[in-house]
Amino acid sequence: xxxxxxxxxxxxxxxxxxxxxxxxxxxxxxxxxxxxxxxxxxxxxxxxxxxxxxxxxxxxxxxxxxxxxxxxxxxxxxxxxxxxxxxxxxxxxxxxxxxxxxxxxxxxxxxxxxxxxxxxxxxxxxxxxxxxxxxxxxxxxxxxxxxxxxxxxxxxxxxxxxxxxxxxxxxxxxxxxxxxxxxxxxxxxxxxxxxxxxxxxxxxxxxxxxxxxxxxxxxxxxxxxxxxxxxxxxxxxxxxxxxxxxxxxxx
Length: 251
Ligand code: NDP
Ligand code: 8X3
What we know:
alpha/beta, Rossmann fold, two-stranded parallel sheet, 8 helices, 43% helix, globular, binds NADPH dihydro-nicotinamide-adenine-dinucleotide phosphate, binds 2-hydroxyethylsulfonic acid
């Protein structure tokens, strides 16, 4: 019986790399996101190249009703989820507090915080029943130090940090591991999304140094998920060599 991992936001960046990493190690993967075409393409490619099964699920993590219904309706053979990676998330804009857009704020909080909580709440009964499971939340260095013009994004990632700590305490009796991974700058579609399709602005974020790559986060996620049963990495901050924290990046 293969292990099962559910990864939110697997249509690009970290989530996609995590799916490829676990698939290569023989895990069955539930991959989720909003872009159905990408998810189906990735699912077909993973199944073609690995002796595993992949279940693509298309939903917006902000949609509480759909999240709950979709995950409750999982076929029985997919309910034994060993690892949940709460990765779906985004930044929108980089504007000072008084200029920032309220819709952007809503989307970031609804996705990065409430979406993560909805998905976790829906998956948890499968884990608590088995007294087994591992929840890996993708936070950010932005959840450790606040930077200028990062307001709501930094707040959302501080919330991920806090929620991870809270889950770890509440889920102790169920033997469920909770790990928070906090990456620094990483070259994915993140900045294209943040700057709303402005490629020049997005590229400038990664100019002049070697940023983290999605595969680095996939390797780290795999490491944390495959430690002996009694070992849990609680909190892990990872940056590229050029970055000390949210505030100090040497170009
Ligand atoms: P990408 O933009 O490459 O990937 C983001 C993923 O999240 C996509 O698969 C996207 O899928 C999914 N997603 C976004 N919004 C929703 C939604 N409402 N419902 C469902 N899925 C959603 O960025 P990254 O891979 O870099 O980001 C992944 C996570 O890592 C995020 O939480 C981000 O905040 C965090 N992070 C990123 C860093 C970086 O520098 N890149 C550093 C630290 C943390 P789709 O659009 O198909 O829905
Ligand atoms: C993404 C990294 O520095 O843009 O979480 O906040 S940063």
